[in-house]
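Help needed: design a sequence for this.
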């Protein structure tokens, strides 16, 4: 059976937590649509992200892929069951530090069972990053991973899976195989920018006009 999703252009929240259930990043996003790789959500310029002790506004558009997987955790071209994944791919456009790809390794990344406008996941520290320039691609936050594995008591099988996944994703990002290439995420970045939802005044920038004319208002969500 098909799984319900928000209508494209609908505001939503992507909320992370840590292994012990404590709050982590909360991102204001908009649902864009789905393809063979999974569901794509976007964050227009000026939309907010926050966690305890930190907050920032997006200075460039970005899109995040919540991969489509089946019930045993393998990517599938047809989503038959609600995803419960182990990573989320974010791709930036015009990032001030040249960061193109940022992959959060996670656990239980999925759509909420009772809230159509909420996606959630457990942040598992390790990240795969690609920056335009000499530094290239690498696995980040290994020190945090080691520290939190003791603090939170990560199960050994979870650690083994995610350590192998980090290396596999690093290889795929270096190879720029889809969806870690430019063509797939650039399609969704174009879709995001076409919505005309940027909030630029707060950042001291000139407002971009949407293709349809006047800016589209964004409802404020409290979650």
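Sure. Designed sequence:
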């Amino acid at each position: 059976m098909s799984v319900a999703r928000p209508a494209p252009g609908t505001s939503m929240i992507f909320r992370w937590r840590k292994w012990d259930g404590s709050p982590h990043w909360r991102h204001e996003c908009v649902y864009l649509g789905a393809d063979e790789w999974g569901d794509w959500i976007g964050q227009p310029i000026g939309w907010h992200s926050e966690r305890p002790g930190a907050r920032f506004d997006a200075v460039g558009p970005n899109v995040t892929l919540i991969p489509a997987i089946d019930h045993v955790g393998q990517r599938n071209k047809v989503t038959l069951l609600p995803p419960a994944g182990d990573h989320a791919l974010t791709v930036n456009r015009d990032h001030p530090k040249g960061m193109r790809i940022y992959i959060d390794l996670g656990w239980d990344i999925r759509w909420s069972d009772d809230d159509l406008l909420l996606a959630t996941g457990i942040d598992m520290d390790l990240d795969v990053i690609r920056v335009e320039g000499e530094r290239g691609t690498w696995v980040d936050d290994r020190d945090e991973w080691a520290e939190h594995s003791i603090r939170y008591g990560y199960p050994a099988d979870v650690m083994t899976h995610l350590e192998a996944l980090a290396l596999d994703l690093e290889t795929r990002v270096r190879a720029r195989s889809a969806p870690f290439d430019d063509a797939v995420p650039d399609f969704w970045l174009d879709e995001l920018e076409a919505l005309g939802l940027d909030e630029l005044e707060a950042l001291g920038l000139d407002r971009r006009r949407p293709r349809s004319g006047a800016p589209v208002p964004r409802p404020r969500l409290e979650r």
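The chain is about 20% helix and 35% strand.
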